[in-house]
Design a protein that fits this description.
Distance between the termini: 49 Å
Structural class: mainly beta
Order of helices and strands: EEEEEEEH
Helix content: under 10%
Low-confidence stretches: none
Largest sheet: 5 strands, mixed, barrel
Number of strands: 7
Radius of gyration: 14 Å
Mean pLDDT: 87
């Protein structure tokens, strides 16, 4: 199956931890106006709940991810909603 280029550059959360070279986990990725799950591969193990960035599509609902931290998302996740802007 051809790579799914729409998912590259999207972010998501790991619902099952990745194990690096030992095997994939599963990521819930925000794409196409909703959320979809993909088998998620990474170079190094990443824990469940980690925010990830999709860096490659392997087709057949498989992606390569890396750990990702986005300060604007972190502010919303902690419930404050404060992005440091003027009020």
């Amino acid at each position: 199956m051809a790579p799914d280029e729409a998912v590259v550059g999207c972010t998501g959360k790991l619902v099952i931890a990745t194990r690096g070279a030992e095997g994939p986990g599963e990521a819930l990725v925000r794409v196409r106006g909703g959320s979809e799950t993909f088998l998620a591969w990474s170079d190094e193990p990443l824990e469940r709940g980690a925010t990830v960035l999709v860096i490659e599509s392997r087709g057949t609902r498989q992606v390569v991810v890396m750990a990702w931290s986005d300060p604007s998302l972190d502010d919303w996740a902690d419930g404050s909603g404060d992005t440091g802007g003027a009020r």
